[in-house]
Amino acid sequence: MISAGLCAALLLGTAGCASSSGGTAFTDGKRIIRISHGQSETHPEHIGLLAFKEYVEENLGDEYEVQIFPNEILGSAQKAIELTQTGAIDFVVAGTANLETFADVYEIFSMPYLFTSEEAYHETMEDTEYMEKIYESTDDAGFRVLTWYNAGTRNFYATKPIYEPGDLKGLKIRVQQSPASVSMMQAFGAAASPMSFGEVYTAIQQGVIDGAENNELALTNNKHGEVAKYYSYNMHQMVPDMLIGNLKFLESLSEKELEIFQEAARISTEVEMEEWDTQAQEAKEYAESEMGVEFIEVDVDKFKEKVEPLHEKMLKENPHIQDIYDHIQEINAKAEAEEGK
Ligand code: GCU
Hints:
This protein is 44% helix and 20% strand. The strands form 3 sheets. Strands 1, 2, 3, 4, 5, 6 and 12 form a 7-stranded mixed β-sheet that branches. The chain is α/β, with parallel strands linked by helices. It has helices spanning 4-11, 44-60, 77-86, 118-126, 128-135, 179-188, 200-205, 217-220, 247-252, 255-290, 300-307, 309-317, 322-340; strands at 17-21, 24-27, 30-36, 64-69, 91-95, 143-149, 154-158, 172-175, 191-194, 211-214, 230-237, 241-246, 294-297. The radius of gyration is 20 Å and the shape is globular. The model is unreliable at 12-19 (pLDDT under 50). The site of alpha-D-glucopyranuronic acid (GCU) has 10 residues, from strand 5.
């Protein structure tokens, strides 16, 4: 069931919306494809999704119209995943932390200092054949990942400077709503405060939390740099965002149509990644010069040491992550060897 409020939001901007039954809506005889995400319209993911829309409509424009709903209009990531699960909407972009409760293999990405370089992270995510096995893990929940988006490296930012792990003691730091994110924050020695992304700005502003952890775009695109003026490069995670599709919808497509949606997804990742690199750099410059955010270089090893025991603990508690963990270690080693050449 979709709520009346949601119906209104879904129909908003749907000029000529002729009919809507269950979650499926049509306009001028075309099936409307609805995608929800939590970022703004200038964010790399939105730009990537516009490329997705363009490719689908270029190739299947007689049958489908793609509509993108940014800014958590349709609800937080967790809510939007539920909507995708039931088929009320067709796609959602969400970080892997939100998927942990549906398939615990996704806990792997919450493991701090999992990837030893950006190269290893990208190579892992681009190994489509391997990742396909992971993507299928949510089939029972009724949805499947189509592609990934780069969401950079996550670092701490707060209203007080964090120079070393000891500075986290007594701080309340927002984490994503996942068990592994909470464990990580506890291992760092801070108090974990799980909440949705959209709530973070006000929580910092009102002093409910002291800070959060995220990529540089959170400072500018989500304006968190207005309320948290210290950003420490401790680099604890590289966590991808996922484009997730309702499984029934994907399975209802003809082979040719599915290929077009898959190609659209691949193109959207390419566009997003390029945009990411530009925007992350710009965000840092803007936050520093226009928002007065101080960027702090820290001794990363000290932060690493603090949470390294989590690797063994997580592997012991969740055998489903062992295979991908080993796979990533191989890629890490290969990337390090290449780096040393
Ligand atoms: C990043 C990421 C989002 C995620 C958010 C968060 O912005 O791209 O997918 O929801 O962090 O920390 O909740």
